[in-house]
Structures are given as structure tokens and as C-alpha cells.
Amino acid sequence: MDFPLLKLAAIDIGSNAVRCQISAVLHHGDRYRLKRVEYVRYPLRLGEDVFATGRISEKKQDKFLKFMHALRLLMEVHDVAPNHYLVCATSAMRTAENGPEVAARIRQELGMEIRIIDGQDEALYINRVIEHLLEDKKHYLHIDVGGGSTEFNIYHNRRKVASQSFEVGSIRRMQQEEAGLSTEAMRETWQRMEDWVKENGRRYHVSRAIGTGGNINKLYSMAQAGAMDQPVTRKRIAAVLERITKMTMDERVNVALLNPDRADVIVPAGHIYVSAMEWAEITQMQVPDIGLKDGMLQTLFEEHFDEFRATDDHRPGCPKTTVPSRSSEVE
Predict the structure, then answer these.
(1) What pTM was computed for the model?
(2) Number of Cα atoms under 13 Å in the Cβ half of residue 292
(3) In the predicted structure, residue 209 carries a pLDDT above the cut 70
């Protein structure tokens, strides 16, 4: 039976991977939900080029174009309307000298508009879904580590009161270490990051951490051993990180079963999460299975809510959605 569903799509062009999620808009009574029906991830690694040379190479551009074409076809198969998807690019494309040029090529050849967003816009998108997880009278440090940058947000009694983006990410840090840069060469940015977390952590009395990003999701699943949807301790994350650090790349892939594009960046990313928790003197972290793409989908839903409401012909009211739990599966 063909049961029509309105669908939204978000494409997140990160420094390590490109992710596409397609979600259906479900409605029952006075409640709306976004249910994932398709998810695709490809480790394009734009950051490898950009953080080393400052540009996206022709080879990466060609792969990028092919993958975006594949995603356009996937959205067509899912009947995603032309105005019901959003494409955002983060650190690698905003850093690349030819980032706007590559975005223009995608627009010209595929008709797909790419929004190159800064760290603050990235944080605003994620805020749309993080806020659903917060408790009253609790104070949180949100840590999001990408391939090229790290975003910090502080929430005080459900309200975001401070945020900052730092050009320190898993791929950047890995490349710096591989290039043999000394600790001194990286210390200035790292010190500014530490100072910001300590100062704002004390000012707003943060006591809990929320971690988002592919690397902390993997560390969380390895640390929790089945106890999903529960906070993980800093001690557990550090123990898993130490175990992975001692492994060779071959062991990380064939024993720990990490994807190659995860196996090399998970250690530098993990150090950022653990360090931030230490600076803020936080011992536990929540790790919801959400990120930029989820905030983009929430934004699309809110922008088109009147359209969905008219289609459903239901009574007026504010849009209200639920954030899927970590255990949610595609059906």
C-alpha cells in the first residue's frame, strides 16, 4: 500500500564526512514527530585538503559532485520537495579559499544551494534540538567536536548564556601532530579554549556535560557496554580512549571494528572532550544521538509548519516535536 508521507532532508557537509538524513513528518492528535527513514554517510574528508593546502582539490571536488548528485537522486526517490531540504557546510568549506567556488559549481551543475555557515550558526542549529534535553535549574556545558572546529555552548536554566567556536578539530589536530608541530605551536589556541571553558564553567556553575559528534558517539557506545541512554563518566571515556591510543591502525579497524575514517581521528577528538570536562570539573556526560543535521531538520519543520498544518487540516497551535532517543531505529 502506498501511504504518502511528507518528508524533509538535511545534508551536513563536514570536514570529515558528508551526511544526509531524510525524515518523515508524522502527526497524531496534537503532536508531531520527525522519524528517520534514510541515513547516508560518506567519508569525503574535505578537511584533509583544506587544512593542509587551504583548498579543495580537483579530485575531491569531483567526488563531492558525484556524491551530491547521488543524494539529489535519493531525495527524488523519496519525493522530497525542492523546498523541503537544506544543505549546510561547516569548517572545511568556510576555511577553503575555493569554498565559494565549489559551492557555485554544485549550484550550477546540480541546482543545489549550499549554505556555508560559521560556528555560531552551527551552534544555533544544534541548539534547536539540544534544548529539548535540558532540565530546569540545571547548568550544562555542550561540547561538539568536528573535523575542523570545536563548538562550546553553556546552558543555564534551559537558556543558552554563552557560546564560542574554536578552530581546533579532530582532523586539524591529527594533521598538526603528524606534521610534527610542537606542543608550543598549538598551545595558544588550546590555551584560549581552556581559559574560556574554565572561566565560563565557573561563572555559570556548570555541573553536567552534553557531547555531540560522531567521535563521542562511538566512544560512548564503546564505553557503555549496553547501558545506552545513560550518562557516561569521564573516567570511562578516558579509559576507552587510552585503550584505543595503544592500538595500531590495523587493530583499531580489525579488532575494535572502527571505520578507517574514524580510527585515526577518534583519539585527537576524544582528547578534546575529556580535556573540556576536566577544565570544567565535570565528571559525567550525556551523549544524545543528535547533531547538526537534526537541528537543520527541526528548522525546516518549523519553517514549513503552516504548510504541514494546512495539509493535515488540524487545529492551530505551536509546532511540537519529539527528539528521537538513541535507541530509535529506521523502520
Answers:
(1) 0.87
(2) 30
(3) yes
